[in-house]
Design a protein that fits this description.
This protein has 1 helix and 3 strands. The chain is mostly beta strands.
Length: about 60
């Protein structure tokens, strides 16, 4: 059986209040992270398990 699970988001991560810094545009923030309230999510991230990678052309009947 193929499995996938939502694990986090790819956000624009902003520094926490009181910390100087620039926004991080390439981060993975997991759903259980204490930093989750400080992000603006752009993409959902899922972890794939027990899957098979195939060429795109092979997927077309």
């Amino acid at each position: 059986m193929r499995e996938d699970e939502p694990i986090g988001v790819r956000p624009t991560r902003y520094p926490r209040p009181g910390i100087v810094g620039s926004p991080d545009l390439d981060a993975l923030v997991r759903h259980d992270s204490p930093g989750l309230p400080f992000v603006v999510a752009r993409e959902a991230v899922r972890e794939l398990r027990r899957t098979t990678v195939v060429a795109f052309a092979a997927a077309i009947p």
